[in-house]
């Protein structure tokens, strides 16, 4: 049986066509099958690749056994999408960064061919990341359950007043919170929205969560780090135009009395990284640590 590749890409990127021409031939030459969403058909053809070699499937092979690789061509948002759609099935992810920052899609676009060849040579290293399971409860009814890689954010609308929430960590009451919102982030998500809210950077290997308030009413309410084995619950006491946002891509409307329950997911995501590109090297590269 030929090896299967799931391709997830940012179709609006001006770099997609050239990156497809660089990254896909090594797989096609080895007889790999490629599956992607329908929106990929046009850029695939414009890149001069044989349309017969691309299987269009909006479910990205969900009905089949896990693919050997998920190749992500885009930015971190594209990879977060791929993590939920494909990575949760156990398929490792190789991210090629077509954007500007790219903490997760750490391989630069100019090195796309080299990254693919390194994967095929077996020289990339697995980087296993914990995930966050989020549930939305309204009374005794479970309205939604999602597993995310970065964060869950409870926040208010642009013109709404400050939110009243109640926070529990494990069996402990963490008290009432008045703020514009609250972020619960994984170590992977600690370099995303939580970092902008003043949260700390966590090493990806840590078993912990960041809880970061957004514009708290009390200045002494600061971001904190809690063990990942303690479930977190956020109860919305009073708010208008409130919502729960997951990985910045899934949005759910919240009403007073709703409860968001968070815990470390059993599933984990495997990212493939170049040897030598450790976490601190990535921070120096992306956040310009050490620059003056």
From TrEMBL:
Keyword Repeat included in the entry's annotation: no
Catalytic residues of the enzyme: 76
UniProt: NAD(+) binding residues: 76-77, 81, 150-151, 161, 178, 180, 191-196, 249
EC supergroup of this enzyme: transferase
SUPFAM superfamilies reported in the protein's UniProt record: NAD kinase/diacylglycerol kinase-like
Keyword field: ATP-binding, Cytoplasm, Kinase, NAD, NADP, Nucleotide-binding, Transferase
Matches recorded under PANTHER family: NAD KINASE (PTHR20275:SF0)
Function of the molecule: Involved in the regulation of the intracellular balance of NAD and NADP, and is a key enzyme in the biosynthesis of NADP. Catalyzes specifically the phosphorylation on 2'-hydroxyl of the adenosine moiety of NAD to yield NADP.
Official protein name in the record: NAD kinase
Organism, scientific name: Geothrix oryzae
Gene that this sequence comes from: nadK
